[in-house]
């Protein structure tokens, strides 16, 4: 499900209660890579927080779930009326900038297995589910690598007993081990989120969302 298209007006901001959304950048050659990921810890429509009506990149739902939505014009009105809302959402923008910076660093300097481990942890945080509905083709698109590379990386993590991969699904078996395998690709952005938002992280928020009637 597409939430935003690059260069197109932002009609609504979405606040997932479950599921995972991705923001991707597309090059002139048609290749894509994920630059941002959010779930119950965040929202789409970041450009509207910065008083822009147009999306910079494509944003879509990668793991289905439910959530809430607000008209972009209504959100703009509320931001104009509430200093506390502006402050809180501005902090969220900073948290996403930290995530994007960490993603860029990981893409440039980390091994594929480390990047895959970190990315799966981020999805796990936001889905609140050990079973992630993901195909190798989709993961390759998000990481900006060939499918064969994802297959090799998945086999490495499986061989270490960290995950189990079946057709269209990846199951997290050993989260602590996966965090260790991810090395510097995971943790820094999560710590910055906790500092800025004052919450321990997306995984705790996902757990609360599952119990919220």
Automatic annotation (TrEMBL):
Pfam families to which the protein is assigned, alphabetical: HTH_Crp_2
InterPro entries: cNMP-bd_dom_sf, HTH_CRP, RmlC-like_jellyroll, WH_DNA-bd_sf
UniProt keyword list: DNA-binding, Transcription, Transcription regulation
UniProt domain HTH crp-type: residue ranges: 114-180
Domain of life: Bacteria
One Gene Ontology term from the biological process aspect of the record: regulation of DNA-templated transcription
GO MF entries: DNA binding
Name of the protein in its database record: Crp/Fnr family transcriptional regulator
